[in-house]
Sequence to fold (62 residues):
Amino acid sequence: PKTLHLRRRHKYPQKSAPRRNKFDHYAIIKFPPTTESAMEKMEDSNTPVFIVDVKANKHQIK
Fold:
């Protein structure tokens, strides 16, 4: 019969502090652009346009 092999337990936590989310709601959306094309899109199609963080994905932006 095979013996159950359990993983070794650490004597101390591997990370000193819990991992914190770098993106809060204010870090993802940066600012609205003031270019002519962005203003035109806002006025014509009633679409909000914002500059967002490069590392943010679509789910975080929504």
Remarks:
- The chain has a mean pLDDT of 88.
- Residues 36-45 form the longest helix (10 residues).
- Strands lie at 29-31, 51-52.
